[in-house]
Amino acid sequence: MKADAKTEAAVIGAFNRLWRAYETRDGDSLSDMVVPDPEVVLYGTGADEKRIGVRQIKVQFERDWSQSEAASLRFNWHSVSMAGGAALVAADGAAHVKVGGQEVTMPVRATIAFERRGERWLVAQMHVSTPASEQSEGESWTPPSR
Q: Contact, 50 vs 56, CB < 8 A?
């Protein structure tokens, strides 16, 4: 069900803090925004980017930063749903990355499950992806001939 305005504002506040910490490469703050549970999961855009546990999620962020001079994500649409003490954010936007001296912008999607712990909303699961660029609009699958 759609989150009420107060919950949506709190969850989007946590969502935005997460991406500000990512942009400023603040690994300690990022780690503090994730539930300390061993089963917390991050899926990233790379084929090998499946990380389980806070430590491995931090390792992934550090890898991202080691392979770029700058990186930020800006979102222009979001939806916030909730059930009990959990909220789900789905968002569309763009990743702006500087790699090897060149700036690249690519579309990005994020789905993040937040869990309320006390007065804080913490990341319980995260999936960040880029749309399949080889698919044409209206196609659900990429034909094998491409």
A: no
Instruction: Phi first, then psi: give them for residue 61, nearest 5 degrees.
Output: -60, -40
Question: Sheet of 86-99: strands edge to edge?
Answer: 50-52, 41-43, 120-129, 102-117, 86-99, 70-83
What's the pTM?
A: 0.91
- pLDDT higher than 70, residue 145: no
Beta-bridge partner residues of 14: none
Distance (Å, whole) CA 67 – CA 71: 10
Mind listing the pLDDT tens digit for each residue in 82-135? 999 999 999 999 999 999 999 999 999 999 999 999 999 999 999 999 988 777
Which structural domains are found in the chain, ordered by start?
5-129 (3.10.450.50)
